Amino acid sequence: MQRLLRLLVACILAVVVPSMFGYAAADASVANAASASTKPTSTTTSKTASRTTQRQSDSSISMSIDSATPVVTASSGYHLQLTLQNTSSVATGDGTLTVAANALYTFVSRTDIQDWAQGQSRIPMTSQLSQIDVGNIAAHGTATVNVDVDASAEQLASITSWGPKPVRISYASASGSANVSLHTFLTRSTDGLKTADTPAMNITVVQPLSSTSWQSNTTIVSNIVNAERSWLNSSSVADAIFTGTDAAKRERAESQLVAKHAKLQVVADPIYLQSMSIPARTSAIAQPGMFDITGYAALDTPDAYQSAGVKSSDWDASASMAAYRSAVGNTNATHTIIAWQGSGRWTRQALNIARQQGYPTVIATSGYDADTSGTVHTGKYVVPTDSGDVTVLTAQQELSGLAQGKATSSEADSETSDAGRLSRFVAQSAFYQMEQPYTSRNLLVCLKPGASTTLIDTLMSAVEQSTWLNLTDLNTLIASDAYLSGDETSDIVPQSSGITAASRKRLEAALSTFMASVRSLSQFKEHVLYSNPSSSPSASATASTSNSGDEQSLARHDASKVAENNAKGPSSWMTCLNSLQSRMGLLALSGNAAVIQRMGDAATGLSTTLLNNVSITPTDTVTVVSETASMPVTVTNANPYPVRVRVSSLTDSMEIVTSRYADVTVPAHGEAQVTFAIRVATSGSTTVHLTLLDRQGSTFSSAQTTTITSSLQISDKTGIAFIGVAFLLGVVGLWRQFHRKKDPDE
Fold first, then answer.
1. Is-contact 627 656, C-beta < 8 A?
2. Among 449-463, 645-659, 717-731, which is the least confidently predicted range?
3. Nearest 10 degrees: Cα torsion 346, 347, 349, 350
4. Dist CA 380 CA 398 (whole Å)
5. Which chain regions cross the lipid bilayer (predicted)?
6. CA dihedral in degrees (423, 425, 431, 435; nearest 10)?
7. Are 405 and 418 in contact (CB under 8 A)?
8. Smallest Cα–Cα separation from 492: which of 570, 382, 621, 581?
9. pLDDT greater than 50 at residue 429
């Protein structure tokens, strides 16, 4: 009864007072009220601020909340830090900042609380918390204002009911050139109040633990490419991809955060746990690499993923558990497995795929309850699929959005900063509990991947101080009664994936990049690498050194062993290279643009390096002085195993030509030479194009060019000279024949 009476009084004040005295008059009475007992401070700087300004007015001043007391208790007081930015090229002159509230007001609807946040509600501010003189703010300068109200202040003591209260923060310059306001909330806990407690509302706060900083370790990748035997194992593949240079610092911060807030639920990427020196405490594990299952379902091209080197077995629940066991160093470890939502929604098709892959539970960060205007409820649905029931844990949209840095609307003027959004988060959660104080519910709040540990710490501290909330764990939420199940969920499950064009384009680009990488690796393995034991150069060489009998038999046996070992070596090496490429593809197909770029570049570089390690040594110009000659070409192999390739030679001339092809086997870390025949029909020069072909005739590596210069002179000046001399000699011979003196005897 007392609660209803307070509510009635608040409604009368909200409606009658403004209409009788006017909104401006009500504010004027507040301006004359006594200020807080403490002395707030104001500091001004001329440094240009880079803060995002909120939609407030056309004023030359913008204002944002840097910090605020999210939960006011009997001993906390109320503290604010604000930044004012002068966006004009003219100084503001002196001004005044006023913080006022309505200690008796109770929000009665979602519309009511949203209207206030957007500055569209005329709630009278009957209690002035503080008024501060703000000095001149230079052109394009900023001022930082601190507001401190003691817990003993009358204005706070007048708050006799718990819950969110409206607060308006106003700044006005003395000249009247700048006038701006923020509409925020002060939320009083039940601490120290003589009111009946209602059951606390359950809330589960979940942080996904993953990384978007994946990059390749060039040293380890180089060791694998060079077939360093100590690196040819599954552990080295994990080590070849790390989470950036500041990984240790970030891991410490995450571990400290989890240790400080025991009820913070952590759903971790098991591959990320593998990369940590000491894996953080987790509540559950997600799919490996945070692979985008919803994006996979939306694209509906499983063959493309297979062609990109990422098999379904790489991201199923078994792979997740294997990675977790590797991370914690316990082959028998078990853990709760929950699939995290990717770039699309959990449609029935996506849920069916998740269930097929061994995930009985998924977390939906969006797509469920998005348009619901009813009271909040437990974030759990049990959805039937062709592969079995799937438990869908759904995030409460408003609270999760605020926790992830999203304002409730573009017009919510105080929600452009973390502190402003946190004040709204606390106020909104209190309103939800007051909406149905005796209904058992468990709300899921999903935080953002990669969120600042400082921000999460502040949020969790606020939730822990919120006496109307009871933090629970994921297992409690999973075990709670579903809000809807079975056929009841038919209208709730999203019909379309909702994947954006940008997300689809990123995934398709990643698939294209990794399919090309797989093709290059396959080309190298199948048509360049030489690992045939029966025709191994090592076997032939060893056998030829034996003379006869037992020695020859022993030599053949030894050669066969060498060849067999050589064949096993390339096989293990290629398996490791393929696993490395697959790991890169798996991480890229989480859908993060930066990871796609880095992993795509690394995978392309891996396959390109193998092929480019086989190259033609640049050849000097060849000079020919006869009709035929030869051109030696050297092929180098920097790979750790032999290769067998074909060299193509083609000239730009029809008169100066070479033989077309030459096959060559090049030993590991060695070189071999082939010879091309040259035929010349005239003098001159031409360019020779030398290209490497695999055993199927496809080009690879870098082409080379050289020049053939012919000094041969046939049927040209030299030939004419010879003919001329012969003609002259013939003429002279005939002349002598007719003019010589004959002997008398003739």
1. no
2. 717-731
3. -10
4. 16
5. 718-735
6. 180
7. yes
8. 382
9. yes
**Residue 554, pLDDT score:** 52
Spatial CA neighbour of 163 closest among 3, 33, 35, 38:
3
630 contact partners, CB below 8 Å, separation of at least 6: 675, 676, 677, 678
Q: How far apart are CA 129 and CA 102, in angstroms?
A: 10
Q: What's the CA gap between 92 and 60, in Å, rounded? A: 9
pLDDT at 729: 73
Tokens of 39: 């002395």
Predicted local confidence at residue 548, as pLDDT: 53
Q: 183 forms bridges with which residues in the sheet?
A: 168
Predicted structure pTM score: 0.84
As separate numbers, helices (DSSP H) first and strands (DSSP E) second, the chain gives 21, 30
> What is the average pLDDT across 425-443?
96
**SS3 letters across 567-625:** HHHHHHHHHHHHHHHHHHHHHHCCCCHHHHHHHHHHHHHHHHHHHHCEEECCCCCEEEC
User: Mind listing the domains of the chain with CATH numbers?
Assistant: 2-197 (2.60.40.10), 202-291+336-497 (3.20.20), 615-710 (2.60.40.1710)
Helix (H) or strand (E) holding 206: strand 201-209
User: Does residue 87 carry a pLDDT above 70?
Assistant: yes
Distances (CA, A) of 192 to 2, 148, 195: 18, 20, 9
pLDDT grade, residue 395 (50/70/90)? very high
3-state secondary structure 671-727: EEEEEEEEEECCCEEEEEEEEEECCCCCEEEEEEEEEEEECCCCCCHHHHHHHHHHH
Contact status, residue 205 vs residue 477, Cβ threshold 8 Å = no
Mean pLDDT of 35-46: 36
Report whether 474 contacts 205 (CB < 8 A). no
pLDDT of residue 216: 95
Interacting residues of 424 by C-beta distance below 8 A, sequence separation 6+: 117, 184, 185, 402, 408, 412, 414, 415
User: Is residue 16 scored above 60 in pLDDT?
Assistant: no
Which of residues 491 and 369 earns the better pLDDT score?
A: 491
Q: Is 128 helix (H, G, I), strand (E, B) or coil?
A: strand
